[in-house]
Design a protein that fits this description.
about 120 residues, alpha+beta, Ribosomal Protein L22, Chain A, three-stranded antiparallel sheet, 5 strands, globular
Length: about 120
């Protein structure tokens, strides 16, 4: 199953300006915040994670009928390497032994986009 989302970076910037830490702490984990605020431009980083969470949420719901919350989806980045997703939900633990979530994030000046793919884990011989 595939999920996709795009967000205008200024939308996230306005939410941060208006609601501050209340917004940030409701949507993002501390690891996500630490990572994004260590970047030169933290708004595109936050926006890409928002888009990623939306994409994962959509794919997960369509595939398994489980509606995740934003904070249950953690998008871990390591500069220059693909992002990884961790799902913090007891109900998902059993599923994620058989399936994997693969994501791709991108951002530029005005927009951030993400795609999430949920697929069965391939057995290696």
């Amino acid at each position: 199953m595939i999920g996709v989302d795009i967000v205008k970076n200024s939308r996230i910037e306005r939410a941060v300006a208006r609601f501050g830490s209340k917004f940030l702490n409701r949507i993002y984990t501390q690891k996500e915040l630490d990572y994004c605020f260590s970047q030169k431009k933290h708004i595109p980083c936050l926006a890409a994670r928002w888009a990623c969470k939306e994409a994962v949420l959509k794919a997960f719901f369509i595939e398994f009928g489980i509606l995740l919350r934003f904070k249950e989806i953690e998008v871990l980045g390591n500069r220059g390497l693909p992002a990884k997703v961790v799902i913090h939900r007891k109900e998902a633990e059993k599923i994620l032994k058989k399936y994997e979530v693969i994501v791709s994030l991108s951002h530029e000046e005005d927009y951030s986009v993400a795609v999430a793919l949920i697929r069965e884990i391939r057995k290696t011989n």
